[in-house]
Amino acid sequence: MSSAVVDSALEILDRFAVEDASTASPDEHTAWAEALIDSGDEAAAAEQLIALLRAGSVPNTLPGVAARLSDERARSVLAAAIDNGRVTTALTARAHLAGGFARLASGSDDAEAALLRAVLAVEEFEDQPEYGPHRERMHRIAAVFAALSEAHPGEPERLDRWAAILGEADRPRLAAAAGLLGPLGLAEIDRRCGDPVTDARLPAVLDALDSANLRPYEPSIQVAVLLHGVFVLAGPALRAELLDTRAAMLRARLSTRNPQHVDIGLAAGLIETGRAGEGAALLRALSAGPDRRYGFSAELLITAAARAGLPEHDPDLFAEVFGLVASLSAYPPPLSPAPAVRLGPGGRATAARLIDRSQPNRNPGRLSGWLAEAAARTGDFDTLGILLEKATDEPRASFVARHLAAARARHGDRPGADTLAEACGLPPTSPAAA
């Protein structure tokens, strides 16, 4: 099977061969490194991540992938991030990545100190409180302390060690180490003191949407998500009210601001609660309207279908629902592959066959990538094959082929994986020594 899969992919890549072939993105390099870890080749994976950091890239997923390496190799990746200046302004608007790097440092006093000194560096404009970079610096320092405190529960003595590295002006950032400063920590307080929503309180949530204090655009932003959540939690009486008077009221409230979002939220609720036929009927009605593209994320409906097990229980109805979602949504699929993983191999294969219904030049590529990532993580070669056959240009074919290379590596076919990697713009590596 390995040879046939790889040969077929190479033939498709040859079909779209161009001189200026697309190159792999930093995110794709990181996914390739993760596949190498799964194949048992940590040395090659660490090399990939270090090369990315030296080239100037810090993909959002990089710290999490590096955390899967052995401590020694993970800290070599951290050292590359520090040495190449990737833990300061490179993380602008992404302070959470500083926390990810802190998790790589945790457990080593030297690594923790090196990271703290690096994030404490003051870059241009970061010493001027009236500018955004000053806040960004505070956020990244706080993210590091928060992550380190989580890694060292019950070790308050570390606060003194970290404080010694801080200057007086940065001392307030230690407040982010809530896990050590408070005996419970915020997460434990939330766990012990939560206020679960009950059916009796749900009408009040709906009443808020009809508040005179809300401008029309405000409820339109979240009405689909809110209605879906309320419908799933509600009992039979409130669900009937939602489908009748409440829906009519909200459509009128949003008459100039996407009233269709009401039906999208209700469709998601119906699908998830085992009434997929009724949900599909709402979507059919929307697709027959004059404006057949609506500003909602496909994630809501796709996730609802996956949770209901629709791909397995009623494949034909799932095919119709997914086709309607693809044709109606004006936004790409979810960034996370988790919903696509939940669809299962049958659901992913069905979705792959329907990507042509997505908005031309916008969604199909993102939808292909979303399905391909989930297929690569689960060894779903059927879906990867369908996506390759559906490719209409070199960038899309290469994108899917990179995920196929990762899948082959995970399943022990390093020769095939490296052959594909070289053909589609990923740096090949030598297999790990036995």
Automatic annotation (TrEMBL):
Superkingdom to which the source organism belongs: Bacteria
Residue ranges, annotated region (Disordered): 410-434
Name of the molecule in the record: HEAT repeat domain-containing protein
Species per Swiss-Prot/TrEMBL record: Paractinoplanes aksuensis
